[in-house]
């Protein structure tokens, strides 16, 4: 095959031949198709799409670029969750130990954050001693003993995606439903989970702002999963308002621990239980996750999971050196809290990174003291900004200035789970 011929074919709306897709992904992974050529192909796919057969072949070629793990020897059924990312989305932290405490094995291969939504590994690294890197053998042993692992995806899984995702990130070609679907699903299928629950976010703070795009993404990923023999279900969930009361690494760990203790913000608890219910159904486990959460068993599993990776679950979390409180400007009801603005403020305070490899602050972030629908009084604290570097405060204050809307009339907070796609 010739890369330029394949690019022209897709550019003009043609269908890529199956063997051509295999060749392209392999040649790109090994460097004989260049970044410039793959960037042109990504842009052609951005505009022309991939039909279901092309997409299935593309996903399989990305899986074949690396190793495939197997959990077949475990005594517990495996089930994984993937979220497309949202502000304050710390659900993996309480969810993985909860579902493990119900009897499943939960292999959460996670990433670091880039942009306004945090990464699960960045959050857990706020815990003193905790390490993200595990060998495959360590991961398997922990899955059998504890039931839950949250760790860094090894470089051996879908290396074609690693290269292609980084290229898409700098060429304006991330927002393509077939390429996002192939990227996410190739990693999950290569990981070897038997079941997968997808949390596809929709709304102002999500990657997909429009409901119909979120539905299309969810349907596409569910189809790819099923075709590969992975039981796959998606929930479409609201991401206009940030989840819980905190955005920031250590702050989100603390909130997750509240959930594991049976308390915490009601929206975080609700979404954790909704996803746990789906995961347990996929895994064929008959358990009541609310009862397991309230019994303290999920907390025990959390502590065992943190300890198994070198962390001290009882150590105090880092506290930011500087805080600034922003009071409510008026009396009334909180009627809107903009997820994007809150995420941007947390990012500017040091919770997120501007480019891959930058450090993040464990204690930086935003706490909001009211949820949508709550009554607030003028002068009462509405936000607390946390950072170790006070020079960041000014731009964070700007980011959050218009995040909240206070009105005389109350509004009901909308549903979190909007739709289920299977
Ligand atoms: N997350 C991924 O892993 N890949 C994408 O393409 C987009 C989001």
TrEMBL record:
Signal sequence, renumbered to the chain: none
Domain Pyrimidine nucleoside phosphorylase C-terminal: residue ranges: 333-407
GO molecular function ontology, one term from the record: thymidine phosphorylase activity
Stored InterPro entries: Glycosyl_Trfase_fam3 (IPR000312), Glycosyl_Trfase_fam3_N_dom (IPR017459), Glycosyl_Trfase_fam3_N_dom_sf (IPR036320), Nuc_phospho_transferase (IPR035902), PYNP-like_C_sf (IPR036566), PYNP_C (IPR013102), Pyrmidine_PPas_bac/euk (IPR018090), Pyrmidine_PPase_CS (IPR017872)
Lineage top rank: taxon: Bacteria
Pfam families: Glycos_trans_3N, Glycos_transf_3, PYNP_C
UniProt keyword terms in alphabetical order: Glycosyltransferase, Transferase
GO CC, one annotated term: cytosol
GO BP, sorted A to Z: pyrimidine nucleobase metabolic process; pyrimidine nucleoside metabolic process
PANTHER family (UniProt xref): THYMIDINE PHOSPHORYLASE
Record's subunit section: Homodimer.
NCBIfam families from the UniProt entry: PRK05820.1, Y_phosphoryl
Family: Belongs to the thymidine/pyrimidine-nucleoside phosphorylase family.
UniProt name for this protein: Thymidine phosphorylase
